[in-house]
Structures are given as C-alpha cells and as structure tokens.
Backbone:
C-alpha cells in the first residue's frame, strides 16, 4: 500500500458525500427546498476546479523557470481535469437553476443562462478550451510547452475577474451578487448552516482528491508514453 | 542607448513603416467604412441598445484586424536583429504603445463614422468618447499579447481569434455595461466609476502580464 491513504480517503469521503448528502437533514428554505443538496456537488466541484487550475498554473510557472518537460505534462493534465470538473459544475448548476430560477411565467432555461455569473463560467471553460486548441497547433514540443505555459498563466489571471469580480459588479441571480447576500454564501461562515457544513467540507476535499487521482493517472500514462523524451 | 530612447526608436520605426506602406491603415479604414455602410443600408437609426451592440462588435473586429498585423510583418530574421539590439520589455512596450495609438485612431474614426451614418442616440457624447478610448486601449493591450502568442504558433490568425475571444469577453461585458450609462441608463451612485476603475485595473494587469510573460515568448 504505497501512499494510497489519500485515495482511500477520497473514496470514503465521496461515499459519505453521496449517502450523507442525500439522507442527512438539511435546512428547509423557500424555493430551494431539497435542491439545496446540490451544494455538495455543484459548489464543491467548482472549488475543486479552481484548485486544479491553480495547480496547473503553478506547474506552468515552474516550467517557465526550470524548462523541464514533465512540468508541461503536469500543467496540461491538471488543466484538462479542471476543465472537465468545470463542465460538470456547469451542468449541475444548470439543473439547479432549472428548478429554482425558472418561474412559472413562461421563462425558458436559455433565457436564464444569460446570467453574468453563468456567462463568466462559460467563458472560463472556453478559455481553457482555447488552451487545448493552442496546444494542438504546435509541432515543436519545446515551443509548445513554452508558449502554452505563457497562455496558461494569462488565462488563469483573466479567470479571476471573469468569475469572481465582474458577476459581483453587474448583478446576477446567482448567490454572491449584489442584491442577494454579498460574498460567496458557501464560503461565508455565518451564512452556511452547520448541517450543510458537515457534508460540504468533506465533499470539497473528496472531489479534489478524486480529481487529483484521475490527473495523476493521466500524468503517469503520459510520462510512460514520452519516456524516451524525458 | 537608454531604454526609453530605444522604445521611442522602435515606436517610430513602426509608425514610419505604417506611414510609408499604409496598407494596414487604409485596409482598416475601408473595413470600418464597409461595415458601417452595410449597417446603414440594413437598419436606419437604430435605438440605443442596438447601436451599442453593433458598435462594440465593430470595435472587436477592428481591433483584431488592426492588432493581428503587428507581429505578422516581423520576419524571423528581423526578430533576431531586434533581439541583438533591445530587450524584450522594450520591444513589447514599443509594440503596445504603437497598437494603442493605432486603436485610438481607429476607434475614434469608427465612432465618427457610426455617428455620421447611424446617428448618435447617446445622451452624454463626451462620456461615450471617453468610454470608446478606454475600450480601444483595453482591446489593443489584450490582443497585442494574443498576437504575440499567435506569432509563435506559426502566425496562425485563427489561433489568435480562438484565444482572444474568451479573454476579451469580460472586458467587453464591462464596456457594454459602462456605455449604457452614456445612453441615459441610471446606475447606482458610484457604480459606473467602480466599473471604470475595474477596467483600468484590468488594463494594468494585462500590461504587467505582457511585461512578465513576453520575454519567454521572445526567446527561440
């Protein structure tokens, strides 16, 4: 059992998230009702995504300072898993919005998806898709690693205003916008109910660990495939 | 030579090339004229929000066309020559300055043609000119870095558009939002100023990133 405790922890935490998330008691709120349980999936997946993008950023900076090819593999693998989590987070968010934001006055879901926060989320995913398109356009490996590391740093920095600052300024239905309670409600210690916290924090850790696990597997196969180059 | 002198020399070189060849300048002027004229034929006197949307779409495409060319003309040999003469920071600063100037001229020109053909439904004209200048600067900064990255990817223009669009959307969103105030939309006290400040902050951020990241692109 070589350093496998965190993989076991990930599985246990996620089983707890799913079982506890669906069965444990939650606060009863108007409109949200039982859909509040989506907090354990939607919000924590976005948390994990931000963490993974952060790790990807660190490896890109490392690549630029040390020029080691394996750091480029790390950066791209973390960005890939992060994008996948972003897609999952977007999908779970759309399901959530479908049940809480759509009123009975003939609104369609596409009408609601024009929210600043959702636009920001869509842009975030597009920025990383562009990163992969850029990666595909090079034939020279060193050049690819260097230029995409530059873009990755730039993308991460632009991500911050896109999903954290602008939706807060222009107003949005999503929690965390002016008009609703300011700040991210899941992060605010006074705001989140202690019953939710019991599952929410383990869920964040669980999803992050699972994502890291998936990424390390991807990195290992890539390292084996490019063994002759390293 | 001091670095400010080098920057001015590089800037002058770009400007002189432009004045002698003039193909970028007239190409974009023609582009603006065609776009606005087609819009003029298609819709007469659009209302504020339509005008605003059309104007910013136009600005976006102008900036892509104007800025994309800034690295296209630099051949490999010439880049090597610059490398022996200047540092990366000086080179990118000169490029940024030149592109800002180009975009300022282009955005004011397109504002004039827009107002001439499509009318000017804004209430605060001076404010809108300021917003246009701010928008021109923001776009030229972002697209200069994108053009620099694209120039490494075999001068692929499609790559620049793919990279640039998602990155520019936050700024466009803010710009469209701010320019609504010039069309008479009422905002909360200080909200417009806050957004302008944020846009300025973003510009400074992009500038800093250009200075930090360009040296890595420049080495080959």
Residues:
């Amino acid at each position: 059992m070589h350093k496998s405790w965190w993989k076991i922890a990930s599985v246990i935490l996620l089983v707890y998230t799913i079982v506890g998330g669906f069965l444990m008691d939650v606060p009863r709120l108007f409109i949200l009702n039982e859909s509040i349980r989506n907090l354990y999936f939607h919000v924590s997946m976005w948390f994990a995504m931000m963490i993974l993008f952060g790790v990807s950023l660190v490896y890109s900076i490392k690549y630029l300072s040390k020029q080691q090819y394996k750091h480029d593999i790390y950066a791209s693998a973390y960005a890939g898993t992060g994008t996948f989590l972003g897609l999952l987070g977007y999908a779970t968010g759309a399901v959530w919005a479908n049940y809480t934001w759509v009123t009975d006055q003939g609104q369609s879901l596409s009408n609601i998806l024009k929210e600043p926060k959702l636009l920001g989320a869509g842009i975030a995913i597009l920025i990383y898709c562009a990163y992969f398109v850029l990666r595909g356009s090079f034939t020279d490996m060193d050049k690819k690693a260097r230029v995409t590391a530059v873009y990755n740093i730039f993308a991460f920095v632009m991500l911050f205003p896109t999903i954290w600052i602008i939706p807060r300024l222009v107003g949005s239905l999503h929690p965390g916008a002016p008009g609703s309670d300011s700040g991210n409600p899941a992060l605010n210690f006074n705001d989140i109910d202690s019953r939710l916290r019991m599952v929410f924090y383990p869920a964040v850790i669980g999803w992050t660990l699972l994502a890291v696990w998936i990424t390390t597997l991807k990195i290992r196969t890539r390292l084996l495939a490019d063994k002759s180059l390293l | 030579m001091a670095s400010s002198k080098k920057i001015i020399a590089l800037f002058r070189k770009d400007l002189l090339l432009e004045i002698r060849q003039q193909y970028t300048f007239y190409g974009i002027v023609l582009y603006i004229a065609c776009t606005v004229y087609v819009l003029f034929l298609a819709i007469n006197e659009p209302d504020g929000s339509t005008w605003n949307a059309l104007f910013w779409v136009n600005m976006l495409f102008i900036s892509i066309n104007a800025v994309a060319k800034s690295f296209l003309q630099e051949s490999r040999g010439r880049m090597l020559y610059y490398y022996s003469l200047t540092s990366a920071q000086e080179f990118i600063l000169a490029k940024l300055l030149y592109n800002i100037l180009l975009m300022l001229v282009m955005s004011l020109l397109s504002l004039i043609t827009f107002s001439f053909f499509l009318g000017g439904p804004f209430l605060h004209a001076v404010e809108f000119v300021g917003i246009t200048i701010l928008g021109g600067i923001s776009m030229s900064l972002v697209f200069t870095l994108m053009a620099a990255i694209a120039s490494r990817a075999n001068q692929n223009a499609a790559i620049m558009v793919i990279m640039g669009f998602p990155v520019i959307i936050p700024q466009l969103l803010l710009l469209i939002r701010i320019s609504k105030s010039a069309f008479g939309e009422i905002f909360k006290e200080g909200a417009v100023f806050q957004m302008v400040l944020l846009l300025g902050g973003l510009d400074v951020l992009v500038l800093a990133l250009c200075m930090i990241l360009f040296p890595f692109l420049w080495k080959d």
